[in-house]
Design brief:
With 199 residues, this protein is α+β, with helices and mostly antiparallel strands. The protein folds into 2 domains: 120 residues, Beta Polymerase, domain 2, CATH 3.30.460.40; 65 residues. Helices cover 41% and strands 17% of the residues. The chain has a 5-stranded mixed sheet with strand order 1-2-5-4-3. Strands 6-7 form a two-stranded antiparallel sheet. The longest helix has 17 residues. This is Nucleotidyltransferase family protein. It holds the Pfam family NTP_transf_5. InterPro entries: NT_sf, NTP_transf_5.
Amino acid sequence: MEARSFDGIVEALRAAVPVLHGAEIPFLLGGSMAVWAYGGPEPINDLDLMVRPQDAERAQQALVDAGFRAEDPPEEWLLKAWHDDVLVDLIFGPRGVPIDDAVIARGNERSIAAIRLRVMALEDVLTSKLLALDEHQLDMAYLLQLVRAVREQVDWDEVRRRTGDWPYAAAFLTLVDRLGISDAGAPSDFRARREPANG
């Protein structure tokens, strides 16, 4: 996908959040933008908003009514809407982390670009990203950038428990351990130890 500017993604976020709040649709900021909210690198592709399956069509319609352009993708686990040249993915079925009330409740309230919203828990973000790795999508370099930036906030034992049976995730976690990025064997209460840099 062609890279978008970070400022454009922030503007899309600023446009989408009040629409979804106004429609009373529960959602989370997800994907690389969620990692940024915890102190990760600025994303330059699309914007991921996580919604429950029963809310996805209503969320897309609310955005369309607010001036976004709808797109119906071939994938069965998300819907799409465009804000100018920024693609907003409305994701309801990421691999390994189906979006439900429990996932939304695990999110953390943050103020981002002067907007208050919930951000997907880091362990949920990383679980979905690691379980999406396969022979066709194996960009471990970018994942390493993400986890290096937020490593002290991650409950690595939890991520390992949830993804270790997937061979691509196990390979990545071995790499993370060998590079000294993870805190393998350390106490697992990492999220309470440090405030996110952008929170």
